[in-house]
Amino acid sequence: MSHTAHIRSHRKPRRSASKIAMRAGVAGGVLGTLAVAGASASSANAAEPVTQTLELPTLTADLAAQVAQSADATQQAAANYQLQAERDAASVKAAKQAKSDLAEAKKKAEAEKKAAEAAARKAAAERASRTTQRTTLAVSTSGTGTGTSTSTSTGSSSSDTTVTSGSTATGSAAAVISFVKSQVGKAYVPGATGPSSYDCSGLVQTAFKQVGVSLPRVSQDQSTAGTQVSLSNLQPGDILYWGGAGSAYHVAVYVGDGMFVGAQNPSSGVVERPLSYDPPTGAVRVL
Fold it and tell me: What is the pTM of this model?
């Protein structure tokens, strides 16, 4: 007997085919189980996107809220712009309306002014028409009286205390009338006393200055400078006035034959007109 016969052999015993097959089946089963588990794990992993997809509604809802807020802000801004545009349009319309109203008011005022001027002209014409007959009669009477009173005036001129010249009334009157007629056509300038332009009282004062008669400068004073005479008894050389005695606003010189010479206004200057053109209020005699 060998000395190694009692030592157990380290060589593994042969396994039988049945055991190997059984172990192979077990191993296959285990592998199959692992495969199933792996497949299940793969399926689980594949399903994870589905789980993430389920979270999308929450993200989408937030985004929708933000979009809604942005839309509201945009709508509000658009409303503000529209409101501002409407206000601007209203301002422009109001400005146009104001301009139109102003133009209409000016037009109306101009029409009223023209109507007033026409009414004034009509009133003056009616007044002249009413006084024409009276004036004509006064002129006729004046002409007769002048012829009669001229000779008497000549004889009594030395006793007329209003005459400051040594000349007779007829001679002085003739000189005054000659002077004012020679000024016809010259300009009317307020405050002027000649020789190229006059105002009404400046012409009268300068005319009487030619015969040595010193008259006050203004119409108000000239209307009371001599003896008040009736318009029905005028003589050449009398001073005519318009307005009240002491408050007259215009004066001229009566030159006979129903005519007077006066510096009327800036548009007409010094003119010769009939009494019917603008009947005077009264008259004074200084010659």
Answer: 0.44
